[in-house]
Amino acid sequence: MASVHIDARGLHYTPLNQQIRAAVAGGATEIVIDHVLGQRFIGDGLRGDGVTITVNGVPGGDLGMFMSGPTIIVNGNADHAPGNTMDSGTIVIHGSAGDAVAHSMRGGRVFVRDNIGYRGGIHMKQYMEKRPILVIGGAARAFLGEYMAGGLLVVLGLDGSSPISERGLGSGIHGGEIFVRGGVEEKYLGVGARQLAATDAGKKTIEPVLRDFARAFGIDAGPLLTSEYTRITPASARPFANKYTWE
Amino acid sequence: MSIGSVPFKFRVSVDPEQCMVCGRCIENCSYGVFSKENERIKVNSRNCVACHRCLAFCPRDAIDIAEKPTDYRSHPVWTRDVREAIFNQAKTGKIILSGMGNAHPYPIIFDQLVLDACQVTNPSIDPLREPMEMRTYLGKKPAALSLKEFPNGDVELLTKLTPNLQIETPIMIGHMSYGAISLNAQTALAKAVSHVGTFMGTGEGGLHESLYPYQKHMIVQVASGRFGVDINYLERGAAIEIKIGQGAKPGIGGHLPGEKVCADVSCTRMIPEGSDAISPAPHHDIYSIEDLKQLVRSLKEATEWKKPVFVKIAAVHNVAAIAAGIARSSADAVVVDGFRGGTGAAPRVFRDHVGIPIEAAIASVDAKLRQQRIRNEVSLIASGGIRESADIAKAIALGADAVYIGTSALVAMGCRVCGTCYRGQCAWGIATQKPELTQRLDPETASVQVANLIHAWTDELAELMGAAGINSIESLRGNRDRLRGYMLDESLMQVLDVKSVGA
């Protein structure tokens, strides 16, 4: 297993990404980047199954955008839109992340240990075997899962705060599903979303994801598996079907 | 129903003297106008959209179509269109969906601009005899060149150049997605642009694998729905275009209805079959001009700074300031889509009332970029309502580097501008995904027609330029002295920066 260390101190994102690409092309499977401080686009458009990149510090926006394959582990918080339009691979954030996490993600996984900002999982979509998954350990702000067209979104509220306490949850959702640990007040649901208590069968479907999440952060999966969940799904797969008349 | 029936939009008549009851009209009409009864052709005029498919295939010229055969009481305010829209909405309570471009009778500025020609004092150029440079390059140009000279006279260019697109004619084909138009239609356009040496846009529908052979001539689009976008797609395109807005419907997103998402469209867009493809109004990772810079750079970073990135906006009131912001975002070209731009489907109220004409938008964007000394940072592509070669000459003289055509390329393939693209029943096989209709469009034949049109317009453009004593597109660009306004008001002439005829 070839391992490469990169020191990102004072390094612009383009030469940083060039070094990452060169390391992957050279057969590295472990890349550790130290002193990351706000560099955007780390792993942008990067291909590389079986490659793990450890980011020590705080990466800038669009971490792992368009990424196809690699795993990125962030030891710190992340900025705006990690996993933006990501194709496959995994991002694990040992901290919190900003707005539009997993924006338009089409495959792979994003695990955030703590909280995320607004519009998390917006317009996530799925196709055939590609089914993106976003799991948030803490709480999410307004408009979580807006325009969601596919995939799975889970919010756990592990730090004791309420996972959802702002409006627009699943606003315009027309595919995919959102699981929230505990209950969700009806007033927080967005237009086009509906909620039901998750059934045992429903909970069973997310069990492997919860186990993986617990393993990623070294926490006990037990309480996650025994909790009650609310499942939010689209009221219709065709939210705009009845809006128009022909000229 | 208290409102009752409204008059036909079109009356279809079949001349019984000419008709031989061959039934071609029945086969060709996808809207169900014709049927056979007692060995005669029976007509249901109410279904007619005037797409002329029947008329084009009638072997005896037996069919005639008349528009608005029934009169309303005429009134200058309460026009027929206004009254019929009210009837429609009183019945349905819904937003009226329309197709093609702006149908409101606003004056067309292009038609009030005239071009110049040489007489006596400077000679015109004969394009038959003299070389005419119709080639141009799209992308950033350096503000200055830094050179290293060697004692032996050799010169080395030290300035790092940014990737540009080389186009052999300033005419490109704009973004019409697979989904909005058929794969046969996209294939025809792709073959045509490859043949001519220009480019076309994919639209926000991904790139179908059968078009990979033409990818060097395709500009891949990234729009707010991010349909069909992955790293492979970005790398295939010759350039990448971020779609912020569209002239036919500025400020709103798009909905490809589930009916149009067939198996093949589904796989190209990467969404489940039959699901609505919803493109939100904004990009939800762009809420400011700073965020736009981030998206432009994310696309460049993903493709290792090898691809030009275009940003397309609808022409709206503050288009010049917006374009100046885009020019500072690392983008390589700004596409400005005027309010006459076409579409497969747009709310009628947007199509007809939102946005500004391309002529004014291009002139003000070009002026603003020059004022701020950043005109070299971006190329400027004019789009929306380009109908003939004279429009192209005028758009370039107003400051454009190149134009996108859309509707005119479809007309070259048979489209009659019936404006019912949103119904998915296009009898010409263009704006439909129904196999029995799409097979009517032969990509080979249609590509020759589209290429013919681009050739013809390029030749006309060369003639117009030659007559004006101009021998390259780059000398025509922004050359407003070659334009005069005819019956344009003073304030508009100031915006366009042109003089009046006679001045």
Write the layout of secondary structure elements.
The complex is a heterodimer of chains A (247) and B (503).
Chain A: E1 2-7, H1 13-25, E2 28-37, E3 52-58, E4 68-75, E5 88-93, E6 109-112, E7 133-136, E8 149-155, E9 175-181, E10 193-197, H2 200-217, H3 222-226, E11 229-234, E12 244-246
Parallel strand pairs in A: 1-2, 2-3, 3-4, 4-5, 5-6, 6-7, 7-8, 8-9
Antiparallel strand pairs in A: 9-11, 10-11
Chain B: E1 10-14, H1 24-28, E2 34-37, E3 40-43, H2 53-57, E4 63-67, H3 80-92, E5 95-98, E6 113-115, E7 136-138, E8 147-149, E9 155-157, E10 165-167, E11 171-175, H4 183-196, E12 200-201, E13 218-222, H5 231-236, E14 239-243, E15 254-256, H6 263-269, E16 277-279, H7 289-302, E17 309-314, H8 319-327, E18 333-337, E19 346-347, H9 348-353, H10 358-371, E20 379-383, H11 389-397, E21 402-405, H12 407-412, H13 435-438, H14 443-467, H15 473-476, E22 483-485, H16 490-496, E23 499-500
Parallel strand pairs in B: 11-12, 11-21, 12-13, 13-14, 14-17, 17-18, 18-20, 20-21, 22-23
Antiparallel strand pairs in B: 1-4, 2-3, 5-19, 6-22, 7-10, 8-9, 15-16
Quick structural gist:
The complex is a heterodimer of chains A (247) and B (503). By secondary structure, chain A is of the alpha/beta class.
What does this structure look like?
The complex is a heterodimer of chains A (247) and B (503). Chain A has three helices and twelve strands; from the N terminus they run E-H-E-E-E-E-E-E-E-E-E-H-H-E-E. Chain A has an eleven-stranded mixed sheet with strand order 1-2-3-4-5-6-7-8-9-11-10, with helices on both faces. In chain A, helix 1 links the parallel strand 1 and strand 2. Chain A is globular, with a radius of gyration of 18 Å. The mean pLDDT of chain A is 96. Chain B has 503 residues and is α/β, with parallel strands linked by helices. Chain B folds into two domains: 85 residues, Alpha-Beta Plaits (2-Layer Sandwich), CATH 3.30.70; 304 residues, TIM Barrel. In chain B, 29% of the residues lie in helices and 17% in strands. The interface between A and B is large, with 49 and 45 residues. Strand 12 of chain A pairs parallel with strand 5 of chain B.
